[in-house]
Specification:
Layout lengths: L1 H5 L2 H15 L7 H19 L2 H6 L2 H30 L15 H30 L13 H26 L28 H19 L3 H19 L17 H11 L10 H6 L3 H26 L1
Length: 316
């Protein structure tokens, strides 16, 4: 078993996914206490950072929810961006790069400004105001943690709901009558990089990015641990899809029905098809992966031809 895992990069992707799930503590003895401790820590931090007048007027549950969500997403976002940036700067794992060349530095700076504005000016108050949508009695503190299997199937259903809304909203944004007004901004990056993941029009950000991510937890009224895990998990998946790398140990390509980074990279470079997120299901059902499948077939044919020629040269 150890040998097979060592030589199968996708097996490492499976193990990484299991590790991430366990990191959010479902089914562990100290799970409830650990989650409550995180909430308490966020409350203490807010009380120390905010002036007394603001503390008195704030909804502390909403502020705690916003603080935990922002902290979790920022850690995931910037650590993942730093990882891919390090690979690029140090020229590591370059054989897994999906395209050559670097993006326009001016566009990268613009995307960075967009991200900083969204993450630290717009997102925190929106999360604070949105808390009543997620709240239920005991939702943040004292609520019963879900069992491990419950946690897993709820995350999976979140992925299905997300993928459905993302596919159809994303496809709609490519309609010629509205593309240039909304989605064109995101496609300014012909060869995407991680920092470009959230570089988009506010309408797109709300419908395709935010709403598709939270629709599952909202409909199922999941425990907060599922919500926080899924939102960060989806964020890392989106960064992976825009990274420009097709890493063999990525947990987002462990199944044949998942083809995140290569499919989405093709979508950016060719601006057609591959509208899905986690899965290729909707593209397959609706036939919007035709150009991509032809592209893959052509690449395989070219590789086969190259190998034949190389073999003939070796014999001669």
């Amino acid at each position: 078993l150890g040998k097979s895992i060592t030589h199968d990069p996708k097996a490492w992707g499976v193990l990484l996914f299991v590790f991430l799930v366990n990191a959010f503590l479902p089914g562990r003895v100290d799970a409830r206490g650990s989650f409550d401790a995180a909430s308490s820590a966020a409350r203490v931090a807010l009380e120390r950072l905010l002036p007394e007048a603001a503390r008195d007027s704030l909804d502390h549950d909403a502020a705690t929810f916003a603080a935990i969500a922002v902290a979790a997403m920022e850690v995931c976002f910037w650590s993942t961006v730093a990882f891919y940036e390090t690979l690029d700067r140090l020229k590591l794992l370059q054989n897994y790069k999906l395209h050559d060349g670097d993006p326009d530095p001016e566009m990268v700076r613009e995307a960075l400004f967009d991200v900083l504005l969204g993450h630290f000016v717009i997102r925190p108050p929106l999360l604070y105001l949105a808390y009543p949508l997620f709240a239920s009695e005991g939702w943040m503190q004292g609520a019963q943690m879900p069992e491990f299997l419950t946690f897993v199937w709820q995350v999976f259903l979140c992925m299905l709901a997300d993928d459905t809304l993302f596919y159809w909203s994303h496809r709609a944004l490519h309609h010629p009558s509205i593309y240039k007004y909304i989605h064109k901004k995101h496609h300014m990056f012909k060869k995407p990089v991680a920092i470009a993941t959230e570089y988009c029009h506010p309408v797109e950000d709300f419908i395709s990015n935010t709403l598709s991510t939270v629709i599952g937890p909202l409909l199922m009224k999941t425990h907060a641990s599922v919500f926080f895990f899924y939102t960060t998990f989806k964020l890392v998946q989106s960064l992976d899809a825009h990274s420009g790398f097709n890493l063999p140990f990525s947990p987002f390509s462990i199944l044949d029905s998942m083809d995140c980074a290569p499919a989405h990279d093709f979508h950016h470079t060719h601006n057609v098809g591959n509208y899905g997120g986690f899965f290729i299901f909707w593209d397959w059902v609706c036939g919007t992966d035709g150009r991509y499948e032809k592209h893959l077939a052509k690449n395989k044919a070219n590789v086969a031809y190259f190998n034949v020629v190389k073999g003939i040269e070796g014999i001669s």
